[in-house]
Write a structure and sequence with these properties.
The structure is a homodimer. Helix content of chain A is 39%, strand content 19%. The first copy, chain A, is an alpha/beta fold. The first copy, chain A, has a single domain, classed as CofD-like domains (Rossmann fold), CATH 3.40.50. In chain A, the strands form four sheets. A seven-stranded parallel β-sheet of chain A has the order 5-2-1-9-10-13-14, with helices on both faces. Chain A has a three-stranded antiparallel β-sheet with strand order 7-6-8. The first copy, chain A, has a two-stranded antiparallel sheet with strand order 3-4. In chain A, strand 3 and strand 4 form a beta hairpin. In chain A, helix 1 crosses helix 12 and helix 7 runs parallel beside helix 9. The two termini of chain A are 13 Å apart. Chains A and B meet through helix 3, helix 4 and helix 5 of A and helix 3, helix 4 and helix 5 of B.
């Protein structure tokens, strides 16, 4: 059994852990979003890949939902005192990882091989694959102008309305080594309950990946990130209303037009109609066990 | 009154603080060694400039003699766990400063202006000037081969005997902005009780600085770093014995031939003879008050 999950961080990473728990070791490969990667204080930060790594390895701060448990913040406080920026929160343990990655990138290593090294050191059998090793960056078109993703999301706390989401670098971005092979070999392809525009969108913006999904010979099942038409966290409900006029399962399904065979929606959103098969489940992942139960439902929907 | 001090870190930095305490605000400029600068985990580290900054600003760990008081070590531990090196001890607060400096250097700023910014943020009126903004690196010639300074000093704990100290980059290294102006305007030039070969040597390896000392029209007074012919810390006594055959004040004075008018030696080394005037004092800086008393003796010897 081989399963490939497309995922952002946050809820996507929690779902990835549910899948990891539900599957046998080595059966899962996660293709992670790199559209929100950024440089902070000269460090290359890959927020979604790191959320996946930390969550799958049990290092994540469960309360906060990002960064490491038991984190300290002294380097960032010091950097700010010496004139550096501190709008993007980087903890000390987290910085240790960014230092190793940033140096390796400067020495010419690819993000995918660096990530593979981290996964190995974390003792994981799940693979984490960046969607691309090439530079692909999400930009948010707002009434205030076009903003880099993290400036919109973190620095301006996603207060600006979103008119469109665009990607820099889609022309050149090729799937990272292993991504197409994993999709080709998959018995099921899943899409995590992540934001379709800013978390899954950048993955699908890599042409080879979108094409592989369009030409799939196995089922692809997405999990809706909405519960009762509302985002659990983040601005997705506002984005959907403004960009496609609503937050029903049908509005969500349209984000994945031609790419999925079924959409798993929460009980709070049923009954509903959509251009794809709908599967109703409890999608809120209150804890690790709930994430595993959801994963089992989704696997059932994908593999029968 | 304008005083310029040439200094390494450690004891040199303690002496610099003694001078800062003894002089009026703004009277002191310290020209710091950059020969031991290095890149660790992709960060540009300037150990001696930072020891000067931390000591003068009251941030130094007094017990350890380097790095910041109340330091934590989580980023380094994390970097090591993810595959980075940890032979060079960088604390979290310290890393905050290195991040800001490294990014500024990558963006094209000069080390001298970055250092000036740090000095300003620390609220210091003493100036800290890197000897040069150009790349000048100390290398140690040992029976085991030629080693970069920090590899010899930290990684191999200066166990290797030293046959010679050489500098990469002396051909191109120009004094940093402000250094020659400070030397020209000085009423006295002082040399801290630092290692003449590896702390003061790289400063004097900048041709313009050596020339300015040779042509000085004011007195230049050095403080011997030896007490009773022994190094307070570090390998200087072994270096002197092997390279010039002894550790008397005369052996120390020869390191500064033509550059100093007087050498301040410890009571434990008197009486002695040397090719320059000798001034006897208590040179051990047990505490900040002792450093200030020594500074007053040295200023008296320099200015009369």
């Amino acid at each position: 059994m081989k399963v490939v999950l497309l995922s952002g961080g946050g809820g996507g990473a929690q779902f990835a852990r549910g899948l990891q728990d539900a599957l046998a070791p080595g059966e899962l490969a996660v293709v992670g979003n790199v559209g929100d990667d950024l440089e902070v204080l000269g460090l290359h930060v890959s927020p979604d890949l790191d959320s996946l790594l930390y969550t799958l390895a049990g290092l994540i701060d469960e309360e906060r939902g990002w960064g490491r448990a038991g984190e300290t913040w002294n380097a960032l406080a010091s950097a700010a005192a010496w004139g550096g920026e501190d709008w993007f929160r980087l903890g000390d343990y987290d910085i240790g990882l960014h230092l190793v990655r940033t140096r390796a990138l400067r020495e010419g290593a690819r993000l995918s091989e660096i990530t593979e090294g981290f996964v190995e050191r974390a003792g994981l059998e799940t693979r984490i694959l960046p969607a691309t090793d090439d530079r692909l960056r999400t930009r948010i078109v707002t009434p205030a102008g076009e903003l880099p993703f993290q400036e919109w999301f973190v620095e301006r706390a996603h207060r600006d309305e979103v008119d469109a989401v665009v990607f820099d670098g889609t022309g050149d971005a090729r799937p990272a080594p292993g991504v197409l092979e994993a999709l080709d070999a998959a018995d099921a392809i899943l899409v995590a309950p992540s934001n379709p525009y800013v978390s899954i969108g950048p993955i699908l913006a890599v042409r080879g990946i979108r094409r592989a999904l369009e030409r799939r010979r196995v089922r692809c099942v997405a999990v809706s990130p909405l519960v009762g038409g509302k985002a659990v966290t983040g601005p997705l409900d506002r984005m959907l209303r403004r960009m496609v006029g609503g937050t029903t399962p049908s509005h969500v399904a349209r984000s994945y037009k031609g790419l999925i065979d079924a959409l798993v929606i929460d009980e709070a959103d049923a009954p509903a109609e959509a251009p794809v098969e709908l599967v109703v489940a409890q999608t809120l992942m209150h804890d690790r066990a709930a994430a595993r139960r959801l994963a089992e439902v989704v696997l059932e929907a994908a593999c029968g």
